[in-house]
Structure formats: C-alpha cells, structure tokens
Amino acid sequence: MIRWIRIFSLILLLTAALSSGISDRASAGEEGKIVIDGSTTVGPIAKAFAEYYMSNNKDVNITVSESGSGNGAKSLLNKMCNIATMSRFMKDGEFSAAVKNGINPVAHVVAVDGIAMVVHPSNPIKELSVEQVRDIYKGKYTSWKQLGGPDVKIVMISRDTNSGTYETFEKLVMNKEKIEENAEYVGSNGAVRQRVQSTPAAIGYVGLGFVDRTVKALTIEGVYPDSRTIASGVYPIARPLFMFTDGYPKLGTHLHAFITLYLTPRGQEIVKEIGFIPVTQYE
C-alpha cells in the first residue's frame, strides 16, 4: 500500500507541475493566512501541523475546521478554503464541479490510516471477519450472543453519510449494501469513540488515530490494526488520507511549506505521534 501511495503522490505532483505549471492561486497562503476544512479523521493531523507551523512562523494564521470530507470538497470548490482535508479521494462529480468553477484539485497523500472496528473494553469479543461486521450492520446479527458474546442487543454506531470514513466503510466492508435502519449516526470519529466507550453493547468504526484505552479494537480476518499491518497492506480496512489544494502551491509560499510538511522528518513524527502512518514509512 505504501509503495502505491508514494507512486500515486509523485504522479499527481508531476502532473500538476507539468500540465498547469505552478499555480499562484494560493494567495491566502502567501499572505500568511491558510484556511483548512474537511475530514474529522485528517483533522488531528491538520491541527497538529498548524500548531507546529504557526509556532515557527509567528506571522501565519491557520484555521482548521472539521465539517466532513464532502464539505471539505465543497469548501475548496467554492473557494472558501485553501486546503480540503479528505479521508477519501475526491469523487468524479466533485472534481468536475471544481474544474467548472475554475479550481484545479491536486491531491497530497499525507498519511495512511486503517479503520478500526471498536467495542467496549468489557466486551469479550476479540475478533470478527469482514463478513460478520457487514452482517452486524445489515441487521443479520442482533445480539452479541450470536457471535459468542453476552446476551445483549448490539448497538451499531456509524459515521454520518457525508463522512469519508463512512464511504470507505461502505465500500470496503458493506460492499455498498445498505446499513440497517436502527444504526445510530454520529458526526465525528471522536463521537463514535465516546458512544462506544460509554455503551457496553456498542460497536463502531474509527480511524486508527482515535483508538485508545477507552475502547477495544478488534482483530479483523485474523489481523490486528496497527502501523505494521496497515503499512504492509495486510489489514483489510485501510485507506490513504488526503489534503487537496487548488493547483500545486507556488514554491516559497507558506501554503507550499505547509502542504509539504508531511514529507519532513518533523511532519512524519507528528503523523506517528497522532497514531497514523507516515507515507514514508517502510515496512
């Protein structure tokens, strides 16, 4: 997976530079103001990058909003932000709409993430298959007893449908089959974690960076989600994380320095510290 992402990033960078030249449309970045909007999964990376960058560049103001990947794409399309953070690739329709509005979306793969299935720490279940997870969310399994756990009703927690994490889960786990109508939908990874940690019968899914001691990540298809299994492509529910800009930022601007921070040693350390996987990590 990491090798594919590195090649993918290089192709996008060269394509942007060769086909349209280096864009000077990042004027806000040049002026010392950078506006970021989008994914709640990529949000912690963007916030940590912003804190680090502003601490070293006192004349720069960076704001980070977490309205979801879909809304991040809309913000970039409507020229409301300089960077759209997305936990999925931009859809064809979003890309086409952006181009029609004079925006040239360029993708920067800033990290790799695995989607962890999490339950309450008291739940004795330790492992599920992708098919079992799909059947839980389809409503085929309604009690943990059917899976070897306690005789209690399963509480399904899902991300909202505007989320890139939801769309990745829908594609890699659900095979685009419909989630059972009794599932609860929440607006962020943090909200999923909070709901699961307070509900013994709950199951949810979050980005790897949101797994902590308050919830228990499950082994899926015999593979536990961690940096090694995700970077090597063994863990089955994984995806790249993106930041999109309008064109490739002009060299020498704050926007360019910020958007390439993930390639620096400190940027890679930040990604690791948050719990995600740097695209430069070799396994």
CATH class of the largest domain: Alpha Beta
SSE class: alpha/beta
Helix content: 25-40%
> What is the total domain count?
2
Radius of gyration: 19 Å
Sheet of most strands? 9 strands, mixed
Instruction: Give me the number of helical elements.
Output: 11
CATH homologous superfamily descriptor of the largest domain: Periplasmic binding protein-like II
- Give the distance, in angstroms, between the N- and C-terminal Cα atoms: 10 Å
Strand content: 15-25%
| Basic shape | globular
Write down the secondary-structure element order: HHEHEHEHEEHEHEHEEEHEHH
- Tell me which CATH architecture of the largest domain applies here: 3-Layer(aba) Sandwich
Low-confidence stretches: 2-29
Q: What fold name goes in the CATH topology slot of the largest domain?
A: D-Maltodextrin-Binding Protein, domain 2
Mean pLDDT: 89
The total strand number stands at 11
Describe this structure in words.
This protein is α/β, with parallel strands linked by helices and 283 residues long. It is globular.
Which SSEs are present, and which pair or pack?
Elements: H1 2-20, H2 27-30, E1 33-38, H3 43-56, E2 61-65, H4 69-77, E3 83-86, H5 92-100, E4 105-119, E5 127-128, H6 130-138, E6 155-159, H7 164-172, E7 184-186, H8 189-197, E8 202-207, E9 216-217, E10 219-220, H9 227-231, E11 238-246, H10 254-259, H11 265-274
Parallel strand pairs: 1-2, 1-3, 5-10, 6-7, 6-8
Antiparallel strand pairs: 3-11, 4-8, 4-9, 4-11
Helix pairs in contact: 3-11, 4-5
Labels describing this entry:
disordered N terminus, 2 domains, globular, 283 residues, alpha/beta, D-Maltodextrin-Binding Protein, domain 2, two-stranded parallel sheet
